[in-house]
Amino acid sequence: MGFLDIDNTTKSYGAVEVLHKVDISVEEGEFLVLVGPSGCGKSTLLNMIAGLEDITSGEIRIKDQVMNGVHPSKRNIAMVFQSYALYPNMTVGQNITFGLEMHGVPKPEREKAMHEVASLLQIEQLLDRKPGALSGGQRQRVAMGRALVRNPDVFLFDEPLSNLDAKLRVDMRTEIKKLHQKLGTTIVYVTHDQIEAMTLSTRIAVMYGGYVQQLGTPQEIYDTPANIFVATFMGSPAMNVVPATVAVENGVPMAVVELHDGSRARLPFSQQNLAAWEGREIMLGIRPETITDEDAADRKSTNIAQMVNRIVVTEPAGSDTFVTMTLGGKDVIARMRSDADVRPGADFTFAVNMEKAVAFDPATEMRILP
Amino acid sequence: MMSVSTQDTAIRTGRVTRALIYLVLLLFGLFYLLPLYVMVVNSVKPLDEITGGGMMNLPRVFTLEPWAKAWSSAQIGVDPTGLQPYFWNSIKMVVPAVAISTVLGALNGYVLTKWRFRGDTILFGLMLFACFIPFQIVLIPMARMLGLMGLAGTTWGLVLVHVVYGIGFTTLYFRNYYAVFPTELIRAAQIDGAGFFQIFWRILLPSSGPIAVVSIIWQFTNIWNDFLFGASFAGADSQPMTVALNNLVQSSTGVKEYNVHFAGAILAALPTLLVYIVAGRYFVRGLMAGSVKG
User: Transmembrane stretches, by residue range (chain B) (predicted)?
Assistant: First the structure.
């Protein structure tokens, strides 16, 4: 039993099931991020936890209390919305205390709670202003203050950073993480931004098409994605997934991939258990940062494979240079040091850290290695 | 490119065209104000100046006597009461009718946009229908209904008629306004623990200023100016201003006191003018807010 249990929960609109048997158990103090492309059902799931959407079947429990059919205000949750949803006719102070007022908390206590939260979020000087007179970042803080003041069991965040500009988004991201570390609250956070998911969460649920594709720590999700969707959705630039054939030489399984000129490179796997796939096609997954020049290859790795391939495009990005090549008939991106000596059209010796390589079944798209 | 070429044209064709446009607009404006001029000028003349011809002339002798007479001592029907009691009749009818129909329209708009239910669009369509039904059609059934309810000939009967007739319009206004009101605010308030009416009073209504002004102006003007329902359903002691004005002007005995008639007509029009002057600038703003924002 966790702190927040989502137990075989489904959601249907009429005959259409949009959320299929979601099963997640969140421990107290965890930061769970629901991530996925739009339409994957992540916001629907969040709204079901909040009580803004009915649960078609299954159960949602908070502290072992079944929440099905319980009014949102009686679940002891607080929600931060994408648009912040600050009441435009009330001052910041009134916005923060509205929930307490509705729950019949006496005024002196409301004031006290308001000032505590305001000082925590450093918005004391804004308490008498209307939301219309605040900047995006300030509104964001007020919205979080409104959630914090209730001292809820579970915080729900619905894409809270999507309306901020890029720089502020990074700042507020850090802010939210600090707040979580400081207060140790249980948070469920919805986003479509995989970087937010990676940086903030203690666990991630990657959702797609109404299914939870994978539930795990950020590292698990990144290193051992359950399937091709998770592999390509998490990480930027996305993981390269190219067709390859398995060959076994001296007991070592290898991925045989086609280079730009039709010749083949042989990249040995670190794992041995691919014998069953000998001679068959797989999808080989390689993260861009595991393809480098020889000098920058990971020294701790025991399995660096080399291949000579032609550079198609280089994209210097300051800290890194992204190099595009053709591998297995697809564009593959490598993430190189910015001072790597790469020129478009030239042949280059790439070092591939095969320790980090992932293999997928092309038919089911599920991971077979590691 | 666009702005450059427009500026260019504006400079070359500027002066003459602009003068011409202003001249034409000025003439239209004057023509439009002519009836008001005639009414005001003749309401402050002694009667013999009017009957002697020269309707357009400024008064030679200025007098407020016709105004005083129209207000408090002119013959309306049988009694020489002036328009005064009927003015209050109208107020007693208009204020509750406007208030009730506006609040109900706001509630309807709230439910139709934020508490959606099966068939709500059809219901809204049916309510819109009310905006297109001509008054005359409902006269007989309405008279029967008022009789059955024991409201025939009373001010409250008139209030009911106007509320029922106005609800279609007010619902339309508020529904369209609330349709673009962010639903996340309602959800936030629900999580905060606010109930149906608390959300309405505390969150929605305080943000409804512009559209409330539209609804109030529209309802006030329509109900104040209504003659048909007033003439059909009012009793002797609940007749509104419009009916009284008609009785004043149409009386067939004695001398036709045109100056008193003019003064009475202006008195009857004053409240609506006042509402427009006070709230008029919100009117356009509200109309725009309801329509453009979506």
Answer: 20-40, 93-111, 123-143, 155-178, 199-220, 262-284
Q: What angle do CA A76, A80, A85 make, to 5 degrees?
A: 115
Query: For residue B7, what pLDDT band results from cuts at 50, 70 and 90?
Result: low
- Closest CA–CA distance from residue A42 to any residue of chain B (Å): 16
Of A173, A201, A233, the residue at which a domain comes to its end is A233
In a shared domain, residues A229 and A245: no
Same-domain status, A32 and A121: yes
Residue A72 has its nearest CB partner, among B184, B190, B202, at: B190
Which residue of chain A has the CA closest to B207? A89
Do A338 and A220 sit in the same domain of this protein? no
Domain endpoint, select from A174, A208, A233:
A233
Here the CATH number for the domain that contains residue A199 is: 3.40.50.300
Q: Using CA coordinates, name the residue in chain B closest to A72.
A: B191
Same domain, yes or no: A214 and A298? no
The minimum CA-CA distance between B277 and chain A, rounded to whole Å, is: 26
In chain B the domains, ranked by start, together with CATH numbers, are 2-68 (no CATH), 84-291 (1.10.3720.10)
Q: Is the pLDDT of residue B207 over 50?
A: yes
B161 token code pair = 């008629």
Average pLDDT for residues B121-145, to the nearest whole number? 86
Nearest by CB: B194 against A77, A79, A102: A102
Contact flag A52-B189 (C-beta cutoff 8 Å) = no
Q: Is B294's pLDDT higher than 50?
A: no
State the Cα torsion B281-B283-B287-B290 to the nearest 10°: 100
Identify all chain A residues contacting B188, using CB atoms and an 8 Å cutoff.
Answer: 79, 81, 85, 87, 146
Whether residues A268 and A192 share a domain: the answer is no
Q: Does one domain contain both A80 and A175?
A: yes
Whether A87 and chain B come into contact, CB under 8 Å, resolves to yes
Q: In this complex, is the C-beta atom of B191 within 8 Å of any C-beta atom belonging to chain A?
A: yes
Clarify whether residues A172 and A281 are in a common domain: no
Domain that holds residue A323: 240-369
**Residue A247, H or E segment:** strand A240-249
Do A221 and A251 share a domain, yes or no?
Answer: no
What would the two tokens of residue A47 be?
A: 């709204």
> Residue B178, CB half-sphere, CA atoms under 13 Å: how many?
29
**How many angstroms separate the CA atoms of A61 and A23, rounded?**
12
List pLDDT tens digits, range A264-311: 889 998 887 787 888 899 999 999 999 998 888 888 888 888 999 999
**At A83, phi and psi to the nearest 5?**
-90, 10
Q: Is residue A148 over pLDDT 50?
A: yes
Test A85 with B203 for CB contact under 8 angstroms. no
Domain containing residue A337: CATH number: 2.40.50.140
The count of structural domains within chain A is: 2
pLDDT category at B292 given cuts 50, 70, 90 is very low
Looking only at the bridges linking them, the beta strands covering A203-208 and A186-191 are: unpaired
The per-residue pLDDT for B286 is: 60
Which residues in chain B are contacts of A46 at CB distance < 8 A?
A: none
Q: Any chain A CB within 8 A of the CB of B203?
A: yes
Segment (H or E) for A214: strand A211-216
